[in-house]
Inverse folding.
């Protein structure tokens, strides 16, 4: 928890902001695509049994993308957003890898590569933010109740 609190005051570096904008645009576009034109989406990714489910997942991905895009443009990429971005990419990559060989179009393997690159990028960005976090002095050590209460000794 202390690590998260120390990173919260950080402004996003250029890598984190750039990743948020890139992933945001990618997710916004790919999330809206099946909502706007399901037929062309299915032409590339294969037929789907439940159009409403494809559109629901697309809407959720678009919302994540819009959030990432807004945060990246404002350079307000905090630890919670990094978790959302990396977790979303890791989740989508896992689905791509597990189901692509057996149930869904092989084109999803390309998406897994993109999602893997995003997860890697977020790992690097988080490590850089952690490395450049401000070092806080240790809390004062009290030796007696009088010290803790602020009484002169």
């Amino acid at each position: 928890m202390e690590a998260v609190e120390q990173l919260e005051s950080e402004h996003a570096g250029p890598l984190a902001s750039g990743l948020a904008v890139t992933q945001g645009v990618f997710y916004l576009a790919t999330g809206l695509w099946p909502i706007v034109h399901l037929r062309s989406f299915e032409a590339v990714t294969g037929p789907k049994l439940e159009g409403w489910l494809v559109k629901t997942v697309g809407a959720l991905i678009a919302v994540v993308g819009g959030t990432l895009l807004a945060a990246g443009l404002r350079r307000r990429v905090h630890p919670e957003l990094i978790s959302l971005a990396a977790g979303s990419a890791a989740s989508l990559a896992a689905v791509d890898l597990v189901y692509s060989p057996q149930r869904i179009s092989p084109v999803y393997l390309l998406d897994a590569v993109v999602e893997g690159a995003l997860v890697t990028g977020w790992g690097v960005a988080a490590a850089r933010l952690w490395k450049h976090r401000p070092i806080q002095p240790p809390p004062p050590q009290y030796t007696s109740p009088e010290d803790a209460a602020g009484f002169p000794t």
Summary: Residues 24 and 65 are 4 Å apart (CA to CA). Helices lie at 2-8, 14-36, 38-45, 51-73, 79-99, 107-131, 145-149. The longest helix spans residues 107-131.
